[in-house]
Design brief:
Length: about 220
């Protein structure tokens, strides 16, 4: 059943748009994360095309159209859950569903936060990109409502579980994924100078704890 859970979770971050605000740069550079996020990775709208971390080369033209397909991706997850429910034991399915719900709780929170804060970071943001952020959050919201309908899930808590948020930040906003993004598109085009990132051995929980507080302003 591991393959099913992995497929469901991988689909969550397919066709996923996000960013790091430069407002946290000085905090990052005076923390244990110093040097781990390249300076030119801030104030950049990044679009994760698929679970392999491919980043689109032309966000302004493709993001809104492509993000509309996010609804299909989430619908496929719903169908996969319904199909799996008929093929596995009740306990196994409940385990898969609980794990998926934790991820969904997290991404409902993250995608909502991105919508609320994207215009503060990018005052002159192209309307199509802003609509991509809004559509993304809408699809997650609708998908969660369907999960509640079909599987009698409890409503989303006002504040997502800390463990779930940290777990998803590792997959969605992880440093390795940013390093794969050889052509992330900034809203304001700036020349980029390749820089070598130092490889430091840092505790994952410490990294996630820092990002959670500085990026998402969640009190732990």
């Amino acid at each position: 059943m591991t393959d099913i859970s992995e497929q469901l979770i991988a689909n969550i971050t397919k066709k996923y748009i996000f960013f790091f605000p430069s407002a946290i740069y000085s905090d990052v550079e005076t923390s244990i994360l110093a040097g781990m996020i390249a300076k030119d990775s801030y104030d950049v709208v990044a679009y994760n095309q698929d679970q392999l971390g491919a980043i689109t080369h032309d966000i302004e033209q493709i993001a809104l159209v492509d993000i509309l397909n996010k609804n299909k991706v989430l619908q496929n997850n719903l169908l996969l859950l319904l199909d799996t429910k008929d093929k596995v034991s009740k306990n196994v399915f409940q385990f898969i569903l609980d794990d998926y719900k934790q991820h969904m709780d997290c991404h409902l929170f993250i995608t909502s936060w991105l919508v609320d804060n994207v215009k503060h970071t990018f005052p002159n943001l192209n309307i199509s990109i802003f609509n991509a952020f809004k559509s993304q959050n809408l699809f997650f919201t609708n998908h969660y409502a369907q999960l509640e309908q079909y599987f009698n899930l409890n409503p989303l808590d006002a504040k997502p579980d800390r463990t779930a948020i940290l777990k998803n930040m590792k997959s969605t906003f992880s440093i390795p994924e940013l390093e794969k993004a050889s052509s992330m598109v900034p809203v304001k085009h700036k020349p980029k100078t390749p820089r070598k990132r130092p490889k430091l051995q840092i505790d994952d929980d410490a990294i996630d704890h820092f990002l959670l507080k500085t990026v998402f302003n969640v009190d732990l």
